[in-house]
């Protein structure tokens, strides 16, 4: 994970985009929280697309409606920074709610994987969240003596 973010950070710097872009604009990791979520409006009715693309859009939109708990116009154009940043904002907020001491209802159940990535691609955990709160597993994992072929 760290290496991928570093490569993206280097590419952003090389393209002189560091002032306006971040590695999270191009690579993200999410995790799902276990609560049930209710479905929202029909995603097939939210995008104007050609018939042969309707199923792809519909499937993507139904997944986002289920996991994010809402549908936004920007979801019709998933390749845009606006869409990526909206999804990341919802996922980050959901992580903050999930990790908080006090219970609060989340919007959907997609959460940002609890890591911070600086503009150069260096990966660290959120302060105070080196482990997942529910299972105590290390967010960044731990070293093993097993060959890479068995763990990737």
Topology:
Layout: H1 2-14, E1 30-32, H2 51-68, H3 81-99, E2 110-112, E3 115-117, E4 123-125, H4 148-151
Antiparallel strand pairs: 1-2, 3-4
Any key phrases for this structure?
single chain; 152 residues; two-stranded antiparallel sheet
Structural class: mainly alpha
Helical fraction = 25-40%
Number of strands: 4
Strand line-up across the major sheet: 1-2
Query: Radius of gyration in whole Å, from Cα?
Result: 18 Å
Distance between the termini: 11 Å
Q: What gross morphology would you assign?
A: globular
Largest sheet: 2 strands, antiparallel
Give the number of helices.
Answer: 4
Provide the β-strand percentage band.
Answer: 5-15%
Helix-strand pattern: HEHHEEEH
What average pLDDT do the residues reach? 82
Short structural description:
The protein is mainly α.
Describe this structure in words.
Residues 38-44 have low confidence and may be disordered. This protein has helices at residues 2-14, 51-68, 81-99, 148-151, and strands at 30-32, 110-112, 115-117, 123-125. Helix content is 36%, strand content 8%. It is mainly alpha-helical and 152 residues long. The N and C termini lie close together (11 Å). The protein is built from four helices and four strands; from the N terminus they run αβααβββα. The radius of gyration is 18 Å and the shape is globular.
């Amino acid at each position: 994970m760290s290496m991928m973010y570093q490569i993206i950070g280097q590419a952003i710097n090389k393209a002189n985009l560091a002032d306006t872009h971040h590695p999270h604009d191009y690579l993200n990791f999410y995790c799902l929280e276990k609560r049930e979520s209710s479905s929202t409006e029909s995603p097939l009715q939210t995008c104007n697309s050609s018939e042969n693309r309707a199923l792809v859009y519909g499937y993507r939109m139904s997944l986002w409606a289920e996991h994010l708990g809402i549908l936004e116009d920007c979801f019709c154009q998933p390749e845009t920074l606006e869409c990526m940043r909206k999804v990341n904002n919802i996922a980050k907020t959901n992580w903050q709610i999930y990790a908080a001491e006090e219970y609060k209802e989340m919007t959907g159940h997609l959460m940002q994987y609890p890591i911070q990535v600086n503009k150069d691609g260096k990966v660290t955990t959120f302060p105070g969240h080196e482990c997942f709160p529910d299972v105590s597993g290390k967010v960044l994992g731990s070293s093993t003596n097993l060959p890479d072929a068995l763990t990737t």
